[in-house]
Amino acid sequence: MSTRQRKVKSDLPQQTTTKEHELKQIKDNYNVSTYQLTWNKICFFSILSSLLFYIISLRNGFVFDDQPAILWNPDVKGETPLTSLLANDYWGEKMESVRSHGSYRPLTVLTFRLDYYLWKFNPFFFHFTNILLHVIATFLFFLFCQQIFSKEKEIVFLSSLLFSVHPIHTEAVASLVGRADIISAILFFSSLICYLKSLNIENNNLDEIPRKFSIFWMILSLFFGFMALLGKETGITVFGVILVIDCILFCSIDKLEFLFG
Q1: Angle of helix 39-54 relative to helix 153-165, nearest 10 degrees?
Q2: What pTM did the predictor assign?
Q3: Which of 188, 90, 89 minimizes the C-alpha distance to 144?
C-alpha cells in the first residue's frame, strides 16, 4: 500500500467524526430553537405580521362596492332606526324588495354604523377597523390551533403566520365591504374555540374522546355560530367543521394524518 493510500484511509475516520459532530451540532441548534419557540412568541409574531402586512391599506379610500354599501346606505348613516338593520340587506334595501341584493349581514352593517358615528366618513378609520378586526381574527385562529396542536408548536406557528399574511385575505381586509368575511371569521373561530372547551375543559385537545362535557361552553359555541351568520351567510359552515371535529374524535382518527396525509 502506498503512502498516499494509507493517508487517505487514515483520514476517513476523522472525516466521519467531523460530519457526525456537525450533524449533532445542527440537531442541538434545532432543539434549542424549538425550545425557545414559546406560545407568547408565536402569538406576538402572528399578530405583528397581520398588522404590518395590511397597514398599507390605511391609505385606501371608498372604492367600488364601498360606495353603495357604506356611503349611500341609510342604515350606515343613522337615517333609519337600529331595528331596520334586521329588516334590510347589506346595501340598505328591504329584503323583500325586488332591488334587494339578498345579502343579510346586519352585524357587519352595525359596525359600519358605529364607525360612521365615531369618525363620520373618514376612510382612514374605516380601514383601521378592518385591520384591527383582522388582528383579532388572527389571534383567535392562533388560540384555535393551540387547542388542536397543543404539543406541536411549530405547526401552530406556521399555521398562524400563514393565516395572518395569506394573500387570500387581501380583499377582505383592504376592501371595506370585505369586513363581512372578517366579522364572520371572528365569530367562526370563537364558536370552534368554545366547542373544543365544551368537549374537554381540562386538556382541549383531540387526542382522546372527552369524558365530560360543558353545557355552558356548548351553548356559547352555538351562540357564536349563529352570530357568525349575521356577519356573513357563509358563517353557517362552522357547524360543518364541528361535525368534522366530532368525526375525528369519535372515530379515533389521527389529526395529523387527517390533515397532512
Answers
A1: 10
A2: 0.81
A3: 188
The CA radius of gyration of the chain, in Å to the nearest whole number, is 26
Backbone torsions φ then ψ of 160, nearest 5 degrees = -65, -40
pLDDT tens per residue, range 56-78? 999 999 988 999 999 999 999 99
224, with CB counted inside 10 A (0-12, 13-18, 19+), is buried
Q: How far is CA 167 from the centre of its chain?
A: 13
Give the helix/strand (H/E) hosting 226.
helix 215-231
Distance from first CA to last CA of the chain, Å, rounded? Answer: 54
CA dihedral 159, 164, 165, 170 (to 10 degrees): 130
Distance CA 130, CA 53 (A): 13
Q: Position of cell 387526542?
A: 207
401552530: which residue's cell?
A: 156
Taking CA atoms, 42 is separated from 105, 143, 170, 241, in Å, by: 33, 10, 22, 24
Residue 232 has pLDDT above 90, yes or no: yes
The three three-digit cell numbers of residue 182, written as one number: 372578517
Query: Can you give the pLDDT at residue 256?
Result: 60
Closest by alpha carbon to 161, among 141, 144, 132? 141
Annotate 103-149 with DSSP letters as a single string: ---HHHHHHHHHHHHHHSS-HHHHHHHHHHHHHHHHHHHHHHHHHHT
The pLDDT confidence band at residue 257, using thresholds 50, 70 and 90, is low
CA distance 247 to 251: 5
Q: Which residues of 76-112 are buried (b: 16+ CB within 10 A; e: fewer)?
A: bbeebeeeebeebbbbbbeeeeeebbebbbbbbbbbb
